[in-house]
């Protein structure tokens, strides 16, 4: 086990420093400085190897956290990445993007700051890539069965890698010009540079996974035609339908969905030549929505040269510390200060949007009011209206489900009351041989749930094709995460 007195000898939680604000807002590189190996080792020693490690419960993947903490502390990096890869296909993604429910359920967190699990994880995989320990796992035999995976986000990629390693011939279809889904065009580079996607894709290509970009299923190929060409199909298209705001002035020029804005910015950073790009340069910007997507918009607008950025949230400001009604080991809703919030902008809570104001079809301001609660509903409070000058409003209000139009018309797949693709306990839809994983079936959720569902759906597809499967199943479709994990 790890140092039995490590949490006493190193009681302070120490994370990697962020680059100075004045420096990092001048580029699009990741905000964190390189992690010091000595610090990572000391932080790993704080893991107590608990009798009941609740971090396993907090992580949908069931990551073997105490084991690779111990191996990190002992300096056995190659063994550490082996244990990490045993449950997680892409720790370089989760280590950077997951909100770490494992840390919320860390036993040490009962009365001390929890172990820096997320940073230890990303240090293990980064060290592994640097030392050439991440190698292709080429299947020993081919089954002759074919699988089409539609969507190249974390769920689709995880399923594709598992199925390829099981010996099936897998093709991943992506309608964008590059593989990665929201990892590629939804996540700004200051949170995760795209080299991390590219080097993992090289491993997958070497293993035998095939990638088809610029192909939209339902348009370029019908869903029925795709099903006839492959022995099984996995729907991993995500839940990209954005939640809109139906108030006066919504059609004014200058009001955009957050993901539309972020995708264009990411393409620009990638070096693509865009015309009429949505930009915050020289503008007063308002972001509606206080979650991660809103923070991504804030960091992006800052780097583009916004004059001001104000983030409005309709609800209460969350508490700074765990509230009594969200006890350990649940994942609490806390006031989060991300790297983007450190850099620029203002945040306002209990703010309701009344209407968008404009002249000659262009946005000039947004009318907001204080939020009041009436019969459990959040409504604008009369007499508190004010107009905030703005030329760009970004709607970061969440998502409402999977895209239905072509899938509903061209297949026998059904949808549930939440707008997600309906599935049974084996991840199967109502159409034989068609499965679903990730946000498309779950609704918008965490990256760690997407990977867990992709791995589990791969096991079900393997069993459907071969009659049995030895692939792991981290979660079931009936699993319900504690608190706000989903």
Automatic annotation (TrEMBL):
Pathway: Amino-acid biosynthesis
Record's protein name: Unannotated protein
Keyword Metal-binding attributed: yes
Biological process, per Gene Ontology: glutamate biosynthetic process
Pfam families: Fer4_20, Pyr_redox_2
Matching PANTHER family: GLUTAMATE SYNTHASE [NADPH] SMALL CHAIN
GO molecular function: iron-sulfur cluster binding; metal ion binding; oxidoreductase activity, acting on the CH-NH2 group of donors, NAD or NADP as acceptor
NCBIfam families registered for this protein in UniProt: GOGAT_sm_gam
Keyword Iron on entry: yes
Domain 4Fe-4S ferredoxin-type per the UniProt entry, residue ranges: 37-69
Keywords attached to this entry: Amino-acid biosynthesis, Glutamate biosynthesis, Iron, Iron-sulfur, Metal-binding, Oxidoreductase
InterPro entries per the UniProt record, alphabetical: 4Fe4S_Fe-S-bd (IPR017896), DPD_II (IPR028261), FAD/NAD-bd_sf (IPR036188), FAD/NAD-binding_dom (IPR023753), Glut_synth_ssu1 (IPR006005), Glutamate_Synthase (IPR051394), Helical_ferredxn (IPR009051)
Positions of transmembrane segments: none
